[in-house]
Amino acid sequence: MDHYNGVIIDAATLPATEPEFLRRLHSSLASWKAAGRRGVWLQVPLAHASYVGPAVQAGFIFHHAEPGHVMLTTWLPGGPSPLPANASHQVGVGAFVLNSAGHVLVVQERTGPAARPGFWKLPTGIANQGEDIADAAVREVLEETGVRTRFSGIVGFRQAHGMAFDKSDLFFLCALTLEDPNQMALTPQESEIADAKWMSMVDFTDMPHVKDERTVWGHLNALCCAWARGAYAGIQAIELPVGFRPGTNTVFRAALDEAGMSSASEVKQSKL
Predict the structure, then answer these.
(1) Per the structure, how many domains does the chain have?
(2) Around Cβ 136, how many Cβ atoms within 10 Å?
(3) Is the pLDDT of residue 272 over 50?
(4) Beta-carbon neighbour count of residue 134 at 10 Å?
(5) Model confidence over 231-254: pLDDT tens digits?
(6) Which backbone phi and psi does 251 adopt, to 5 degrees?
(7) What is the Cα–Cα distance from 248 to 239, expressed in whole angstroms?
(8) 259 with 225, same domain?
(9) Residue 82 falls within a domain, yes or no?
(10) The domain spanning residue 144 has which CATH number?
(11) Kind of pairing, strands 124-126 and 149-160?
């Protein structure tokens, strides 16, 4: 039983045969409904994929799928189910990296909508499940160009809807710092990146998709240029304890000066 008077079926306890699964499923549903239980979560492993059809006939609907299982749910009280929906967003990251000469790290994509001759862009990618935004940006730059970096801050982010499979999308443009400020050698990722190079800020800001601030990318790139001039501090990432359970979360906030950071830290500590 879960914390919301619902039921989570342990996938390891599913019967070995479909007839026995059906018998026990109908019996259990009747028992749970009589007891006033609410949402039921049924995880069906790949090995028992044939159980999905009977479960749907018993009133279950799809919630989400992973490589090794599908998750189904049913709402026993009837009416619209208030059970939380599956993940509604994917998270993308981009990286703005400068070397000691003030040149910007840019790449040419091998595939996808940005794979156009002569089109240079900042390194981008998708965050993995359970991966922090900062770590995702650092990883993508290393994978795409062979450059090792550290996270400095978030320049800006945008939200879009109706993206892949009609999901919404959050994209975070991060400013990264080279671990070795003098690193010039680049190793483009053969499977995804056609080319990579260090581009002067003059050439970078002269590209049409950078200098048109009326577009999403133009606006974000303009913030990158302001970051490079020291005219914009961006958004900081601060790891803090949750307070009511073990572990930490990352809090993103506007960058503050040293005095402001100190006082904000004191406020945080006094509230935890």
Answers:
(1) 3
(2) 21
(3) no
(4) 22
(5) 999 998 888 888 877 888 888 888
(6) -105, 130
(7) 6
(8) no
(9) no
(10) 3.90.79.10
(11) unpaired
Residue 30 sits in the same domain as residue 45: yes
Q: Is 250 helix (H, G, I), strand (E, B) or coil?
A: strand
pLDDT digits (tens, 9 = 90+) for 159-196: 999 888 788 999 999 999 999 988 889 999 999 999 99
Residue 107, beta-bridge partner list: 121, 196
Same domain, 122 and 35: no
Q: CA angle at residue 45 from 43 to 50, to 5 degrees?
A: 100
Predicted local confidence at residue 257, as pLDDT: 58
- Same domain as 173, residue 211: yes
Among residues 130, 143, 131, the alpha carbon closest in space to that of 95 is found at 143
Q: Do 252 and 136 lie in a common domain?
A: no
CATH number at 62 reads 3.40.630.30
Query: Is 225 found in the same domain as 102?
Result: yes
Of 245 and 74, the one with more pLDDT: 74
List, in sequence order, every residue forming a beta bridge with 157; answer none if it has no partner: 172
Residues of the chain above pLDDT 90, percent: 67
Residues 6+ apart with CB under 8 A from 128: 136
120 and 71 fall within a common domain: no
The identity of residue 173, as a single letter, is: L
Q: Residue 28: which domain range?
A: 7-75
- The residue ranges of DSSP E strands in the chain, in sequence order, are 7-9, 39-45, 61-66, 69-75, 89-98, 104-109, 124-126, 149-160, 168-178, 193-199, 235-241, 248-254
DSSP symbol at 121: B
220 and 95 in a single domain? The answer is yes
Q: What SS3 class is residue 255?
A: coil
Closest alpha carbon to 176 in 147, 205, 200: 147
